[in-house]
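Milestone 3.1: sequence recovery, worked example.
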């Protein structure tokens, strides 16, 4: 009979995961048996009723001036000149008022930072004639 000599060294790098798998399997079985089988019950929440003819929450009319001092009006970005801005703004506000039963939109001014201050003041004064609420849009650096 031949005897082989085997030198096995004990390694501490190996972690036996068998007990961990057994514990996780037992926990899984426990949670499956103790969990509710029924679907989640919904909470009775009463939401407020809003009339369909009320003004939308985002009732804004945008006026944009780019770096070339071109003025765009409304969501369709119609190009208008500064002298015709007051009449076109009045028309857009009347269209909005008839669509939303007398509610006036907030005019939002978005002006490029390279526009001269004099052009900004002209645009601001032209918009403030017809707008009750006027907001300026800017991006902080």
């Amino acid at each position: 009979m031949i005897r082989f000599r085997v030198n096995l060294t004990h390694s501490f790098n190996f972690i036996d995961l068998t007990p961990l798998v057994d514990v996780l399997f037992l926990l899984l079985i426990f949670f499956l048996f103790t969990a509710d089988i029924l679907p989640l019950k919904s909470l009775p929440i009463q939401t407020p009723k809003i009339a369909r003819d009320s003004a939308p929450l985002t009732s804004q009319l945008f006026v944009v001036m780019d770096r070339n001092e071109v003025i765009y009006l409304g969501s369709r970005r119609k190009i208008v000149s500064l002298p015709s801005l007051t009449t076109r703004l009045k028309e857009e506000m009347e269209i909005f008022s008839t669509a939303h039963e007398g509610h006036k939109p907030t005019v939002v001014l978005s002006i490029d930072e390279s526009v001269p201050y004099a052009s900004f003041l002209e645009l601001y004064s032209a918009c403030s004639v017809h707008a009750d609420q006027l907001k300026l849009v800017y991006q902080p650096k």
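The radius of gyration is 35 Å. The longest strand covers residues 60-65.
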